[in-house]
Automatic annotation (TrEMBL):
The lineage of its organism: Eukaryota, Viridiplantae, Streptophyta, Embryophyta, Tracheophyta. It comes from the Eukaryota. NCBIfam families: PPR. InterPro entries: E_motif (IPR046848), PPR_At4g14850-like_plant (IPR046960), PPR_rpt (IPR002885), TPR-like_helical_dom_sf (IPR011990). PPR repeats lie at residues 37-71, 133-167, 197-231, 329-363, 391-425, 492-526, 563-597. This is Pentatricopeptide repeat-containing protein. Keywords: Repeat, Transit peptide. PROSITE patterns: PPR.
Amino acid sequence: MAALRLPRAPASAVLAGAAVPHSLPTPAQPPPVRVPNTAHLNALLTAYGRHGRIRDAQELFDRMPRRDVISWTALLTAYADAGDPASARLVFDDMPRRNAASWNALLTLYLRAGGGRFTAAAHALFAKMPAKNAVSYGAMITGLARAGMLREAQAVYGEMPRQWRDPVGSSAIITAYLRAGELGMALRVFDGMAVRDIFSWSAMVDGLCKYGTVSEARKLFEAMPERNVVSWTSMIRGYVKRGMRRDAILLFLDMRNEGVQVNAMTLSVVLDACSEASLVREGIQIHGLIIAMGFEMNVFLGDSIIIMYSRFGLMVNARRVFSFMEQKDIVSWNSLITGYVQNNMIEDAHVFFKLMPERDAVSWTSMVVGFANRGWMREATDLFEQMPGKDGVAWAAVISSFVANGDYVNAVRWFRRMSKEGCEPNTVAFSCLLSALGSLAMVNRGLQAHAYAVYMGWVFDSAVHTSLVTMYAKCGRLAEAHLVFSSISNPSLIATNSMITAFAQHGLAEDALELFNRMQNDGQRPNHVTFLGILTACARAGLVQQGYNYFETMRSVYGIEPNPDHYTCMVDLLGRAGFLAEALEMINWMPQKDYPDAWAALLSSSSVHSNLAFAKLAAQKLLEMDPYNATAYTVLSNLLSSAGMKDDEEMLKIAQMSNMASKSPAYSLIIQEKTNTD
């Protein structure tokens, strides 16, 4: 920007462009020149700045007959609010006199701009300030914290005169501590405050929601002498983040009953609660409230509503909201496309992808994932190749898609390609690599990957250490898997589930059940994956009664509805123990009775116990679902042969069909190991 021209207009000057009275015959003397009121012009100058009308503000300033320190500060603040440090500095340097507001305006601008250069400039400016006030210290502490310079922020707080610390300075350092995750230090400052304002209370409520317990946050929230929309929203968001969505909705209703005016952020958080908890009726009601309050044109809320309806699977509603939005940003387009992908409506997603006025990495990655979810890996990789500026998320999406489609070899190859093409691997892509290596039983490569994770400092990442446990377990290295798991001070539920599953698959039911009890004592609540591991452990160890008890408690104690995989585990448990009639009865209890894995488990158990009747029934059901199921033909053929029915017409027919059944091609891991030696 060109250097500013800031003329010093004499006090007698009139506004530039105003008409100068001509001499008139009468009266003899011209009327006196009317000088505009400076206070009025300062107010207009401030209004221009607040509305972003910088050119109008500068022109008005240039035409002002008299300027005081408020005029200069108003212009400086206008440039500061517009994010123009260079012009703001020119105004600051040209000021004949400065007050605390002008120093604070430039200081805040530098700190808001961020980056090493502006933070250093803010430091220098702060040191030169002739008279600092509470706002100066508060701005400096907040800016340093935002730049990640917590120790420097602490030093400024220590220099701050005690009479100014509360509430502005203390609120700023509390926010700084919470930004760094240091809840204890934040609580210490908060407890020591002589005067607290609504900002310090709200900050601590938010901090306790993030780093403490929701119950502690709620207790502090109830103790607040006054609450505003920020404090209410912080508490509601805390419930949502901890998965307590119904509590969030109830608190929102309390907020409404107390007459607190909600804002767009509050409504967005409540929409998230409805969508994550599948509260369709409540979500539709919140949408109606948004329309009634006149927020329907808010782009931010429109995006949230699209996401909510997408999660509900109501894509007609999501598309209708999108169509009625007068203004759409790239998030709006991405939300709709991602919704179509999540609901397996890939063709619709592709139509809108092609219609997008602009695309970003999220747009491209969503479409790549959509193709991959259909198993169209060629289309997914072709689209990926067309993507401009491939980032780590996009690479991870492709690698993850290969793993999801069972193509572990290409998952490994694409991870190597990611590194070769200069894209820094991330923990998501690395976790996918570990999963692929485990599925390929490439333990030597897995050991190398583990060493790389240590070098990168990733071993404490939840996804990485969980993948390491799973990788070692799949490779049959249970000792290493348990060693990695034991090194985690606070294992996630996913890591615990991986270890339970590993114990179960290796026949160590006692260890799996012991870990199951320990996780509950440590406050972890099991989920559906946990029970899959436990039921598998009981099936492998023949613990029929215990397995049945665990299955019953899923619904009655933990509120988990068994899915077809849980029923299949029970069929396997009963069948292995010889209770074939009970296993068949379990299948008949299933909501989805045509689940192939359940009938395959019954067929396998029938084969083990040489029960031809149950084997015929299971094979018949499998062949109804897949007439070319080679396993069904082979197992039944072997049973008939063992029963001495080689000449039986039925045996000949089955043998004939068995030869016709297609079988999957074999794959040699030895070849893979030889071709990937570098």
